[in-house]
Amino acid sequence: MTTPENERKGFAYWMEAAAEAKGAWAERRRLAAAMRVVIDRLVTSDAPEDELRAAADAAERYAARLATHPRRKLPAGFSEVANAGDVAGFFDMSPLIGLSNPMSPPIRLGVENREIRGTVTFGAAYEGPPGHVHGGFLAAAFDEVLGFAQSLTGSPGMTGTLTIRYRRPTPLHVELRFEARVVRVEGRKIFTEGRVFHGEEMTAEAEGLFISVDLAKMRSLAEARKAREEASGKNA
Fold first, then answer.
1. What is the per-residue DSSP string for 127-142?
2. What torsion do the CA atoms of 163, 165, 171, 172 make, to the nearest 10 degrees?
């Protein structure tokens, strides 16, 4: 189960390791934040054709410029990184919590009484029902938050099942609060549960089953990915 020692491992360690970014890392976060604003404003903007064309031209030029630089070496894998790898760099690129990923809302997480607490504000880019968060994004957020919770056991794994119960529509443009904890551990199976609130009103809840994966399996997956990337590079 979760212990103070385990709170120093896996996902939880990221919160300290990534607290301060410097140099290129800080600028990557700055660029991601600017792109996040562009995404949010683009989906609601009624800008004229000329303005949109100019912006698209500039974005395409910069995308081409970025392509001239070497690609960052991707971390080996989920559990391997969580236990011993570049935790901060890996999770800073997360599409849910990563400050270096423009897709990220981002969710801000912390540990309190051996449970996970998180806050997030979803903008217009995450809209499903008018004025409310798309259910798919809530499911992804729960997967991430419950993933943090299961990591506190010290043996983080991968999602086996994820069950979401949508109690009521979850609003956009307001701070939401996530709570998650480990319910029990049975061998390699880690059972978790979580809830999301707007104020004091719960809008959805989730149950997640995670399966601890040994490092040998993760290395095998990483090697297979590396082979695919090398083959793709040769064919480019």
1. BSSTTBB-HHHHHHHH
2. 10
**The domain spanning residue 179 has which CATH number?**
3.10.129.10
Using one digit for the tens of pLDDT, what is the confidence trace for 105-114? 999 999 998 8
Burial of 186 (0-12, 13-18, 19+ CB in 10 A): exposed
pTM for this predicted structure? 0.82
Burial class (CB in 10 A: 0-12, 13-18, 19+), 103: middle
Q: For the chain, what is the radius of gyration of the CA atoms? A: 19
Give the distance from CA 3 to its chain's centroid: 23
Query: Domain range holding 141?
Result: 1-236
| Sign of the CA dihedral running 118, 122, 126, 129 | positive
Coil vs helix vs strand at 22 = coil
pLDDT at 34: 97
CA pair distance 97, 39, nearest whole angstrom: 17
